[in-house]
Predict the 3D structure of the following.
Amino acid sequence: MKKIIGLIAWLVVVCLCAQNEVNYNESKVPAYILPDLLEGNNGEKITSIEQWEKQRRPELLELFASQVYGQTPDAKIDVTYELLTEDPNVMDGKATGKQVKFTFSNGNKKIEAILLMYIPNKPTGKVPVFVGYNFKGNHSTTLDTTILYSPVFQLVKEPDHPDWERGIQSNRWCYDKIIDRGYAVATMCYHDIFPDKPELKDHSIISLFPGYPETIAPGEWQAIGAWAWGSSRIVDFLETQEKIDSDKIAIMGHSRQGKAALWAGARDERFRIVISNDSGCGGAALFRRKFGETIAVINKNFPHWFCENFRQYNDRDEMLPVDQHQLIALIAPRKVYVASAEEDLWADPRGEFLSAYHAGPVYRLYGLTAIDSDKIPQLHKPIMEDIGYHIRAGEHDVTEYDWECYLDFADKHFKN
Ligand code: GCU
């Protein structure tokens, strides 16, 4: 009897370990069938733009909201803007720098955030703009000592944490290059919108919405939904800015912010270009490949990112009614760009590429160009159709090379 119990215990341990083992071996990717992009929930084939826009697109948006990212409430939260600083002469006079305080309020409670913007001085007319969150505060994106610290930063980082240092992620924000190419850039610390720790939800904008915290429903939004919502609020502000061409707004998100950028881009059509940099699981990568990070792993490590319903698919990735090629297709006919890094296996570069590839049928429905081959391109050979893709050498990061590709892609679609 003891032996049998011992054997069962051993089997349970082996099974649990096998479930949590990360697969980095292409030959172990299971055979999978992707959910059909162009077949409605009722089994009907989608053959026209009208059917896509009226039937299939709303169905997919609803599935992503109810099963993955959570529903974004319809309630409107009051937002006011206060110009904190304006310097018409930054970067040797080639740009204007602005810092703007956003105050989100429901009448009882307020949350504050700071947007940092650089606008090129040379162009006389309106300019296109890149919007994107930073991870370590606006102060981490440049050495400029006039940049203010985010109000929430003291909540997420201890006083002696190295992230208080200025400029530590300036490599991810090549402002000079962006300005020289004639683009404005607007960034905010993502912690301002939802401080990235499950126990800090009370300090997130979610806490301002009616019903919080009583109604934590299984399909309710969490951090990724909140970050996506916040980037739309940045667009609201940019639309008030005379120098900004609000028909030419691109969003760029790295990693967890790549996930949020795709979700924001799927929901908000004011983003005309959507860029996912190394976004991985829950971003551009196909769940069904189960390569690198999986649903079970991401839900365990980041329980505050996705809606509760998403946990039903832990170790059952293939049961999710959607996959990420459908999220990318929701951006059509607007332009989308997916980027990977060769050594970033955790994010499954091939899975990121394949979802960009499999989004093609919807782009083709619009008469647009998509990715022709399911063979991943060579390093540093970007594809620049209406869907773009590149894989570069190196690790999980945002590099100058990535930005060069995004600027080329934006030139192609915004400047012609
Ligand atoms: C972790 C997480 C990823 C995420 C990444 C990041 O590695 O597992 O899903 O993309 O952090 O945001 O840098």
